[in-house]
Structures are given as C-alpha cells and as structure tokens.
Amino acid sequence: MDIKHHLSDELLSGYAAGTLAEGWSIAVATHLALCPACRSRFKQFEQIGGQLLDAVEPQKLEASTWDSFKDRLQKTPQSREPSAPRFEIKQPAVIPEPLRSYVDGDLPDLKWKSLGRGAYQVPIETGDSETQVRLLRIPAGKPVPEHGHGGRELTLVLSGSFHDGTGLFARGDIEEADADLVHQPIASPDGDCICLAVTDAPLKFQSWLMRLVQPLIGI
Q1: Shortest CA distance to 183 belongs to which of 208, 198, 203, 201?
Q2: C-alpha span between 27 and 136 (Å, rounded)
Q3: Whole-structure pTM over 0.70, yes or no?
Q4: CATH class, range 1-82+95-219
Q5: Could you state, in order of their start, the residue ranges of all structural domains in the chain?
Q6: Strand partners, 154
Q7: Of 151, 152, 155, 169, which cross-links 173 as Cys (Cβ 3.0–4.6 Å)?
Q8: Which CDD domains does the record cross-reference, listed alphabetically (predicted)?
Q9: Three-state SS for 157?
Q10: What whole-number distance in Å separates Cα of residue 196 and Cα of residue 199?
Q11: pLDDT of 18-69, one tens digit each?
Q12: Alpha-carbon distance 55 to 46, whole Å?
C-alpha cells in the first residue's frame, strides 16, 4: 500500500490535542491505522504537546482567586456536546478500527442503502452534532455528481480508488476538501470505490436534479 495523500498538520495537531469533533476523529484515527507515515508524525505532535505541558509552571492561587474561579464555573453553562474520543490504533483490516466498531463489522456485514445510479451509502451514527459520517460505495468507472462544498469534507479511501482532477486516491489516501474545491470524483474502472466521507455541511451539487433530490438522500 503506497499512500500518497496524507493528513494535514492542522488535523493531526487537533487530534493530538483532543479538540476534533467525533466525526473528524473517526476519519483521522482510521487513516492513522492505515498510514505509518502519519502515525510517525502524530507521535511528534504528541511529544510536542507533552513538552509544552511540562514547560507550564503551576501558579499558586490566592483564596480569593480560587473562590472567583469556582463562582465562574457555577455560572458557566455546561456544554452537552460529547468530547472528541481518542482511539487506540490497531492493525489495519479492510475496514480498520475504530471505524470497524462503528459499523459493527467488515464489508460483508454492511447494510447498504441505495442512492440511485448504482451508488450506495451506510450512514454512521455518532454522538457528534457537528458532522455527518457515512460510507459511500461508487460503482466502478462511474462518477459522483459534480459538487462543491459548504464546509469541510474528508474522504478516506478504504477499497478501490477514484480520481477527481486533483489526483488519484487509492486505499489509505485521504482527501481534504473545502469551499474552494468543485470536483467530480470518478471511481476507477477496476472495481467499486468504497470511502469513508465526513462533512460538516451539505454538498453543493451543480446539477439542479441533484439539488432537487438532495433532501431525500441526505447528503
């Protein structure tokens, strides 16, 4: 497996700090399970974070300062959003952990839902209200409708490959798209392409027909 498309420093540092939402964390951790190069970079971010914590000198709080701090905590609304999870990185499989636990199995166990034109999805439930997470299966040689993005999109290839004008993405490769990218991924002709896709906003389809059915397919 020759992975050519890797995680950005922003995503790795956010994952190391535990600040990513659950959906992004699933994509990052699953890529790390497949990519030795990014695992090595991730360890460096963890080491940097540990060194920064060690360099912080604890400050002695006066009684009045502590009382003020407790008072602020009591008055601050507590968020009900779940904290971003941290995942143990395990040996890669067709669907590696942590994603395998989210879908309760491997490819033969999945219950695909039709999107039309031979494409399928498996929506993945999380405790995260910020992102939407799904598996996508695109038929060999077929395109995804051309679209832009209302926010960020992470696409991690688990099986097969696709190309979209920015490059070829195969197993383990991850593509990070934003509002500046309009593309039309096309699955390679040698087999279906199965991807993990995480978004934080609806896609912006160029076709009026796709915009019409978009509420029905939930993408």
Answers
A1: 203
A2: 13
A3: yes
A4: mainly beta
A5: 1-82+95-219
A6: 176, 198
A7: 169
A8: cupin_ChrR
A9: strand
A10: 10
A11: 999 999 999 999 999 999 999 999 999 888 755 555 555 555 545 544 454 4
A12: 14
- How far separated are the first and last CA of the chain, in Å rounded? 30
Lookup: tokens for 157: 């290839």
Of residues 218, 138, 116, 150, the one with CA closest to residue 185: 138
Secondary structure (H, E, C), 77-146: CCCCCCCCCCCCCCCCCCCCCCHHHHHCCCHHHCCCEEEECCEEEEEECCCCCCCEEEEEEECCCCECCC
Residue 31 CA to residue 9 CA, distance in Å, equals 14
SS3 content of the chain, % helix, strand, coil (to 5): 35, 25, 45
Q: Which amino acid is at 173?
A: D
Cβ-Cβ contacts under 8 Å for 171 (sequence gap 6 or more): 1, 3, 34, 157, 158, 159, 160, 161
Amino acid at 15: Y
